[in-house]
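Intended use. Records such as the UbiA family prenyltransferase entry shown here are meant for training and evaluating sequence-to-structure methods. They are not intended to support clinical decisions.
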Amino acid sequence: MTDLAAPATRTSAEPKLVSYARLAKLDVYDYYLSLLVVLSAVLLPLADFDPAVLVTLAVFGVGSVFMTASMVAFDDLTGYRDGSDTANYTANPTLRRARRKPLVAGNLTEREVVRFGWVTGVIGAAILAAAVLTAPFAPQWAIWVTVAMFVLAIQYSYGLKISYHGFQEAFIAGLGWAMVLAPYGLVTGRFDGFVLVQALLFGLGPLLFGVYSNTNDIEGDRAVGRPTVAALTTPRGNRRFVVALSVGEFLLGAVASLTGIAPWWFVLLMLPVTVLRVRQLGIGFGPRGDILLARSIGFTAHRLGAVLLIAANLVHTS
């Protein structure tokens, strides 16, 4: 473990505020798109729209940002202490810039990161509690999803370290599911099958760029005993796992359309995401073998998927 008061060698000097923004991963907004998906599901007809919904979604969103900042800060802290971040982010600095990891870059100390993690965690808990207490509705299941989301997020790589006990992939998807289902329950007071399908698809988005990151980080994760699927299995087994997730994403929409849970046209609307998944697989696991480019395509696919979910809701409820 490094000295708490001494940072690693600085790769570049930058204002502390910038380093904290990097630590909080504020540029990665993919989970927060869930709030727009939920808004689109309840927006129409406009004559029946309750403005209180906007307040609840805004408060829930701010709480989620602080919660996520705490989660990723503690994740960076653990990754720095066990050496995995240093190995993964400095092995090829052209592809994985260490500046994204302020501890690795030497721009923040461990003490500063720990303080940031706890402060943002406490603020996030308070704001999420305010969202629940002031929401138009508060079904028990939505409250418990919110509580579980927060508790597990903080302990993703800290405390219980659930990502170090074989649950990393499940958590990445589950956080996306919760980020749709919890606010939807708070603003409507009900559970909806089509929204559940959307939540499941939304959660698969971060997972389907996360598994490509894990493929790139196999050596570092194995060295510290972080049991991702990529680290535990063979290259063929990992490829099959990623293919299964990609196919499962398509089948989820197809089955929902066939069974009437979703409109019949829903699977057709989501086909552009499927096309990107095929391209992602080809680039990541084909002859080119460019895992990090495939990972970046995963971001695009998830963001496009969120836009299409929003469109589906607006068409469905109009």
